[in-house]
Amino acid sequence: MAAPTIARGERARAGAGGRRGSLRGQEDLAGWLFVLPATVLLGAFLVWPTVRSFWLSFTDYRVLAPDDARFIGVANYRDLLGDSNFWQAVRNTAYFAVVVVPVQTAAALGLALLLNQKIPLRSFFRTVFFSPVVLSMVVVAVLWSYFYNPSQGMFNEILENLGLPRQRFLTSDTQAMPAIMVMSVWQGVGFQMVIYLAGLQAIPQYLYEAAAVDGANAWQRFVGITIPQLRRTTFFIVVVSTILALKLFTQVFVMTKGGPFGSTRTIIYMLWEEGLNFRNTGYSSAMAVLFFLLVLAITLIQRRFVPQDED
Amino acid sequence: MATQPIETLEAGTWRRERTAGGARHRRVLAQLPTYLILLLLSLLFLFPWLFMFASSLKPSGRVLADVGSALAFWPTPFRPENYQDVFARVPLERYLLNSFFVTTATLVCGVFVNSLAAYAFAIMRFRGSDILFALFVSLLIVPFEAIFLPLFLTVNALGWLNSYQALIVPFVANVLYIFLFRQFFLGLPRDLVESARIDGASYFRIYRTIVMPLSVPIVSTVAILEFLARWNDFFWPLITITDDDKYTAQLGLAFLFGGERTQWGIVMAGTVVISLPLLVVFLLFQRFFVQSVATTGMKN
Fold first, then answer.
1. Given pLDDT bands bounded at 50, 70 and 90, which one contains residue B69?
2. Which residue, A260, A258, A234, A238, is CA-closest to A248?
3. What architecture does CATH give domain B86-299?
4. Domain that holds residue A115
């Protein structure tokens, strides 16, 4: 990737002949000038907070008394690992990710396959399936709170009309998380569908033609061609939606506030609670660092598995 | 049937076309199950939209009374006054203006700052560029949620709590957008830049008059991604903004919902109002929208 750029620079320099040195200096200066705004902003608002997050996690920093902060070693981490609330949050977050990621990915692939046919109104359906992505999570959560309302909500009315028992949904500690999962899949599936559609369209048609000549049936072609060809796309979708799932917050904040009985409290919700509500910055930072390491691990695993054939 | 790849259908229809005259009818017939599935799915994806629009136009009491029937999706009795009421209940116009300002400012500054950096990385050759770019790329994995606390402390130390700066400045520079811009610039024809250099044009002039005018697709992509992210952001404004005057639309709605759980008609009018800008942008620039999502997917 860098090779043609070098060649280009060299040629421009060679053309300039004797003023080579000053041109080189000019290009250095101009280049740094152009990346300066982005570098300064990223340094101040991304690099510095990242470094500080690590540092804070080893202190007893509190927002209300910042000057009293002391270095306390790994005490925050030790407390965290012994905190049953934290482990509940980890379990809840993992539960959400383990269910939502495969379901959403499979649903997205299903929708993409349906729309990858030459049928009239194709773009209409694509628009419809994608449309919830445009809604903010706050709006979605507000709407679905209404559908899930146990006494007057739409879903219970539908259940009753069908002669089925009413459910407690968000007010039940066993149903609240599944209710949030269903809603989250509904909101996000269109995003993955569009990525899958792009992936499907990149599969060379001759592969299918050759397989058809060899007498492969539709299922064999799906398993033998479509799935392997979509490997890169699938890995990307799985990693991105896993990371998104681990960040679960807004739905919980709007719909359940972590309840009932902490059954929907997630890592990020607890981070927010501890860090800003309870003002326990050091403790919260330790959680943030663990969260960062988790995301890092997932990203590295992805690097290992995704074939680096392009780019 | 549902998961049949496209050419199975085509091969099937082609065979039939050879043998029978009413081929078109049979083809439609063959696709009927697919259509049925698509229509049912469409209902699943559309009902919250329909419900939102219908409920926003009827009295709050009717919203609750209608849940059990199809009337839930029809605005009778018609009550457009919900829209007046929601603006009377909370200063929604103020919230919308705040959101609009913050989103636009971040977007405009972001497109400039990120494209300029990407231009330097893609087109120019300066000492340290490789290391700096590698550093930038490595920052892609830092999740915002893991750094929001120290970021909050920084913003607090700058005296920016309850200010627009807090919602704009930290989000201007974005590693993903720099990466996307760079990829696009690398694909531009090289002769353009080279010949302009030989003609004595400065690098900034080339950026302004040659590169950027050719970059409409990537600018739209980044602009759309940024608009979606900023307009719908909830977490960060929730943390940095406590002053009612500076609330974004999303914050305003969350608190309207928290306080007025029973006033469903009014809450729904609020949700329609804050969703409308994005819906309009989406319907107008649909092609770009879908493309931008696909781009982020393919480039990673």
1. confident
2. A258
3. Orthogonal Bundle (1.10)
4. 77-305
Helices vs strands, H then E, count in chain B: 16, 0
Same domain, A37 and A87: no
Residue A209: left (phi > 0), alpha (psi -120 to 50), or beta? alpha
In this structure, is residue A83 part of a structural domain? yes
- pLDDT above 90: residue A187: yes
Domain residue ranges in chain B = 1-46, 86-299
Give the nearest partner residue to B294 out of A195, A275, A285, using CB atoms: A195
CB-nearest partner of B143 from A194, A275, A292: A292
The amino acid at residue A26 is: Q
Phi and psi at residue A59, in whole multiples of 5°? Answer: -125, 170
Helix (H) or strand (E) holding A290: helix A281-305
- Let me know if residue A90 belongs to a domain: yes
What's the pLDDT at B1?
35
CB hemisphere CA count around A99 (13 angstroms): 14
Q: Cα separation of A18 and A21, whole Å?
A: 8
For residue B300, give both structure tokens.
């990673």
Interchain CB distance below 8 Å, B7 and A205: yes
Using alpha carbons only, what angle is made at residue A144 by residues A253 and B149, rounded to the nearest 5 degrees? 20
Question: Largest Cα–Cα distance in chain A?
Answer: 89
pTM, rounded to two decimals: 0.82
CB contact under 8 A, A253 and B31: no
- pLDDT of A29 reads 87
